[in-house]
Amino acid sequence: MFEEEELQSKRNNNLRQSKSLIGSLSLSLSLFFFFFLCFFQSFQSYGPRPCRRFFFFTVHHRRFVTDEQIGPRVLESKEMAARSIIRSFGSLTALGRNSSPNFSANGLSSLSSDLKCGMALLSNRKLSTSILTPDSSGDAFPYDLLTKKTLISPERTLGQYQDLVIPVTNFQNEDKGFMVLAGDVFDVPIRKDIIHNVVRWQLAKRQQGTHSTKTLSEVSGTGRKPWNQKGTGRARHGTLRGPQFRGGCVMHGPKPRSHAIKMNKQVRRLGLKIALTARAAEGKLLVFDDLSLPTHKTKNIVNYYNQMDNTKKVLIVEGGPIDEKLKLATQNLHYVNIIPSIGLNVYSILLHDTLVMSRDALNRIVERMHTPINR
């Protein structure tokens, strides 16, 4: 009798262990199918690189690209994926509830029915998705979580050498896409001492240095002694071309010379990068697809200038030869100046509070900044 009770207890223990093993196996299979379907849907929604774009989280290569600039299709896909995952968790919970009750004697039949129920829920998950809108119902994914920030946030830390994304437009305020600004040119640490030294070097070097005065030997006139040394009662003089006489020479006066001071090429280049970084950080750097105008009328530039906020002087930078219509349209405006990209300098950037550059000019400047310095 005692042996029969011991055998019955062993059978109960084995049955209990088999039930727990079957329950854990069913849960593992359910999780495996859930994640497989989620991965497959993200592969269909975001292209052949799901390792970088998984579920509704998108890893962007550039830092300052917002959800508004990704595109409506990608946003819809992200919202659809988010809602699908939320519903999948609900179906998974239902599946867990169905698989958690006590097993009957026939554990395999219960497992197969639970798996069929879970597979049906997971297979229909793709058909139950919808596109979210701001007017969606309360159970939708919260739309305010999709942040709407400016393209270049003023709260960002400068000098991190991070690439920036800036919109491209034209004089008609048309959207021409976006352009990436190199971080090693447009996001360098601000150094006021470098700017001071570069401006000082630039102003000193641009001095002509053609000032000249005549010495005693260069002044025209006779070299005869004007009167006798003694007997006249006047002061003694040996010439009338001295510095004390009208029309005479200038002693220790300026002569033609160069006022240029020495400055390393690396420091000059760094000064230009700092000036461009300052304008980009202030939001005063505008990139145009091209600088073409329909006519040569000055009102084309005046109308665009009136639409700009907090702008006093504008510097337009052209990549190649300056367009004749643009030149004629701006020659009567003292607050708008044009310069080719090869002549862009620190002093001109600081003299104008707004910088307008063409796409070609921007590429040329970045190429110039990346060119190795000849030793």
UniProtKB/TrEMBL annotation:
Pfam families (alphabetical): Ribosomal_L4
Any GO MF annotation of the entry: structural constituent of ribosome
Annotated region described as Disordered, given as residue ranges: 210-248
Leader sequence residues: none
Protein name: Large ribosomal subunit protein uL4m
Superkingdom field: Eukaryota
Polar residues composition-biased segments: 210-220
Upper taxonomic lineage: Eukaryota, Viridiplantae, Streptophyta, Embryophyta, Tracheophyta
Keyword Ribonucleoprotein recorded: yes
Record GO biological process: translation
Species, as recorded: Microthlaspi erraticum
Bilayer-crossing regions: 21-43
Gene Ontology, cellular component aspect: ribonucleoprotein complex; ribosome
UniProt keyword terms in alphabetical order: Membrane, Ribonucleoprotein, Ribosomal protein, Transmembrane, Transmembrane helix
Similarity annotation: Belongs to the universal ribosomal protein uL4 family.
InterPro entries per record: Ribosomal_uL4, Ribosomal_uL4-like, Ribosomal_uL4_dom_sf
Entry-linked HAMAP family: Ribosomal_uL4_B
